[in-house]
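Priority: medium. Attachment 1 of 2:
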């Protein structure tokens, strides 16, 4: 276009004066129009970029729609996935709570079982201790009964000796009456026998006291044995109930 303007504004060259024939020059406006009119090929080429410009415009107008649809689909997928994740989290939480409850119940049952085992072991130890105490009391009772039997034998012997001394004293008295000449000797013998009798009586009283003490001890041991047997029976009853 600038070249056409320059051609239109430039005047035609002057011919020499001696040339008789001068060719006809075209009008300046026609030349400008010819130069300004592009060929057909140039118009087609100019129309091609216009069509090319329309295609990107169409593409640009379709691209937001595709992106919007993709965003909507992605949003729906995110919401669905989020709901599924929420359900999964709730399921996991519920399962965890159930597991915690089961663990708490198991721990409680285990503690109760341990307490029951400890109580059973304690009761068993008490039963064993009571059995040992009962056996010890039985052995002590048997020993006391044996000692009481020995003391009873000694007491019987002492009674027999006392009776013998008593009969001897009576015989001595009779002999003293019969034998007036042997009064002093009889008195001496009687005194000796009386002393022996007093000693035998003292021994008898001592042995009687020991026998009474042993009987009292035997009675006390028997009472303790009865109490121990009663406690043992009471302890065996809860153990039998638990079994």
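Attachment 2 of 2:
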């Amino acid at each position: 276009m600038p070249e056409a303007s320059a051609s239109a504004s430039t005047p035609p060259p002057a011919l020499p004066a001696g040339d008789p024939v001068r060719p006809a020059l075209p009008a300046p406006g026609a030349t400008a129009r010819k130069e300004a009119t592009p060929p057909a090929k140039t118009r087609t080429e100019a129309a091609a970029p216009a069509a090319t410009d329309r295609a990107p415009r169409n593409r640009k107008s379709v691209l937001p729609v595709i992106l919007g649809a993709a965003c909507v689909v992605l949003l729906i997928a995110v919401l669905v996935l989020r709901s599924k994740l929420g359900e999964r989290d709730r399921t996991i939480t519920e399962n965890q709570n159930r597991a915690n409850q089961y663990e708490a119940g198991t721990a409680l049952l285990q503690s109760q079982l341990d307490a029951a085992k400890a109580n059973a072991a304690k009761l068993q130890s008490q039963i064993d201790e009571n059995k040992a105490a009962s056996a010890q009391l039985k052995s002590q009772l048997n020993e006391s009964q044996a000692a009481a039997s020995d003391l009873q034998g000694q007491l019987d012997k002492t009674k027999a000796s006392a009776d013998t001394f008593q009969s001897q004293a009576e015989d001595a008295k009779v002999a003293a009456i019969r034998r007036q000449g042997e009064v002093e000797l009889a008195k001496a013998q009687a005194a000796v026998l009386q002393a022996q009798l007093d000693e035998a009586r003292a021994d008898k009283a001592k042995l009687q006291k020991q026998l009474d003490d042993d009987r009292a001890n035997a009675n006390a041991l028997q009472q303790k044995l009865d109490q121990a047997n009663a406690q043992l029976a009471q302890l065996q009853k809860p153990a039998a109930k638990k079994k």
